[in-house]
Amino acid sequence: MQNNSQKTACALTTTDKGLIVSGLRDFSAAQIFDCGQCFRFDGGEEGSGDRASLRGATKFSGVAFGRFAAFTDLPPDENGAVLLAEGVTEEEFKTVWADYFDLQTDYSAIKTEIISRFDEACRREDKTIRQAVERGCGIRILRADPFETLISFIISQNNNIPRIKKTIAALCAAYGEPIKVDRNISGDEAQTRYAFPTPEAIAAAGEEGIRALKTGFRAKYIVGAAEAVAEGSLDLAALAAADGEEARERLQQLRGVGPKVAGCVSLFGLHHLDAFPVDVWMKKVLALRYPDGLDIDALGRFRGVAQQYLFYNERWI
DNA sequence: CGCCAGGATACCC
DNA sequence: GGGTATCATGGC
Fold first, then answer.
1. Nucleic chain C: which protein residues 162-201 of A have CB below 7 A from it?
2. Would you list the domain boundaries of chain A?
3. Less crowded by CB within 10 Å, the N or C end of chain A?
4. What is this structure's pTM?
5. Closest Cα partner for A101 from A142, A43, A71?
């Protein structure tokens, strides 16, 4: 599902307000950062634009791969969606953020296949998936760091999103490397940002060090996973290259990693788009929207993307 | 006080 | 194999 024409379609322009990325397809920073796949970006802050066109736009700022940046959706033009990236150079966008946002993947083609597979599985025209795809039309599956995703979703178990974000922020502040913040990002100069801790840093912190961050019963799971990666017994890069089912089974061998966490790590951290994590929200979707049952395995190789459309649709309905 | 939160585990039958 | 109490913590 690679599309070279799309790769070259997005255009970069450096302005005094930041880097303008135009010609984006199937893209919404707000939807991407608000659909539960990423815990390190915070929004809500109004775009500080002095122009009417920026009013109401939400800026999301945060850290990925040890880099702090802010992203704001601008009104689309005739070439597609437009994104304002602050604290990002053209070179950095091309080498880091374009890959993070999975810009080389054609999500229009994915949507078409998803709808087709759902129709087949339901043996009718499925209105639910159409509504979900429409509502979350700008969602993309981030290519997030595998280790960060693993630890983040271990923390997510039996937890709520605000507290998950708070705990991860505390983990980064305590054991992550401080990041030099670009002074051009207005309003954010004063705060020190932190990279996600390395496996070695978390392993060295030990169970007591991690428990001190109010991680509760998850502390031993977090340290165990970090130790496995640090000592090399768990090779996440190999799992990214492996079959989706094989990756999920290997992840579930870790204590504190069950089907749901393994599914989220596979989908968001390893980019296995066939992973379909079922959480309380998805159980609600399945019971409410598909009362006659739904064969997950029949939903095709992009069912993980469909899962995000359905999750977003149900959470913000 | 109780219940819930992007669950997993140990233990029950 | 399928049910269920328990696990830390904080918000409501």
1. 162-163
2. 11-105, 146-269
3. C
4. 0.94
5. A142
Question: For residue A52, what pLDDT is reported?
Answer: 43
Q: Please name the CATH architecture into which domain A11-105 falls.
A: 2-Layer Sandwich (3.30)
Q: Looking at residue A57, what is its pLDDT?
A: 72
Catalytic, A165? Answer: no
Q: Which residue stretches of chain A have pLDDT < 50?
A: 47-53
Q: Give distance CA A314 / C1' B3 (Å).
A: 21
Q: Give residue A183's pLDDT.
A: 63
Enumerate residues 6+ apart whose C-beta is below 8 A from A15. Answer: none
Please state which CATH number belongs to domain A146-269: 1.10.340.30
- Give, in Å, how far the C1' of B1 lies from the CA of A236: 45
Strand C atom within 7 Å of A316 CB = no
Q: How many CB atoms lie within 10 A of CB A135?
A: 17
The closest nt to A252, taking CA to C1', is B8
Q: Measured from the CB, is A222 under 7 Å from any atom of strand B?
A: no
CB contact at 8 A, A80 and A62:
no
